[in-house]
Specification:
There is one protein chain. The chain has about 160 residues and is mainly β. It has a single domain, classed as Beta Barrel (Porin), CATH 2.40.160.20. The protein is about 15% helix and about 55% strand. The protein has three helices and eight strands, in the order αβββαββββαβ. The chain has an eight-stranded antiparallel barrel with strand order 1-2-3-4-5-6-7-8. The longest helix is centred in the N-terminal third of the chain and has 14 residues.
């Protein structure tokens, strides 16, 4: 019975048309873990399709644990919120409809930065994603102590959902 169920799942999933980015009107929600120097946390993001190859969205992250020598950071030192713009290159690069690569820019509470992400959808509603982000211009030129927590290279991995 177990083998029959597994075969049925693979057969049914073969008929599902999963697309990583559909264009105008597409809405994605992502939740994942972010890893960086000095702490790890959770990240949520959402993207709204504006056209065939572009979207805008929002990102919120919160550091759960920190390893700074400055003591325990307050809530506002752990949180960051950003607005972002993405250019979706999946169809430009002619990769699978299930995959998308998206570079983008983000403007947040702490800095102006850039990110590069990739998504892969297993079904029409569920996939995985990964992103790497860097600050381009920091609001405080001397980003030491708590300011450094949200002004550095960040790697994120998690789940992506079509809404």
């Amino acid at each position: 019975m177990k083998k029959i169920l597994i075969v049925m799942i693979f057969v049914v999933s073969g008929f599902v048309n999963a697309q990583a980015y559909k264009g105008k009107g597409d809405v994605k929600f992502q939740i994942g873990a972010n890893f960086q120097n000095g702490g790890n946390g959770i990240t949520t993001s959402t993207d709204f399709g504006l056209g065939e190859n572009m979207s805008f969205g929002f990102v919120a992250s919160y550091l759960l644990n920190t390893t700074t020598i400055y003591g325990t950071p307050k809530f506002d030192d752990r949180v960051d919120v950003k607005a972002r713009f993405n250019a979706h290159l999946g169809n430009v690069l002619k990769i699978s409809d299930k995959a998308d690569i998206y570079p983008g820019l983000d403007l947040g509470l702490r800095n102006f930065g850039a990110h590069l992400g990739a998504r892969y959808f297993f079904t029409n509603g569920f996939g995985v994603y990964t992103e790497a982000g860097i600050p381009i211009a920091k609001y405080k030129t001397d980003s030491s102590g708590y300011d450094y927590l949200n002004n550095q290279f960040v790697f994120t991995i998690g789940a992506s959902f079509n809404l």
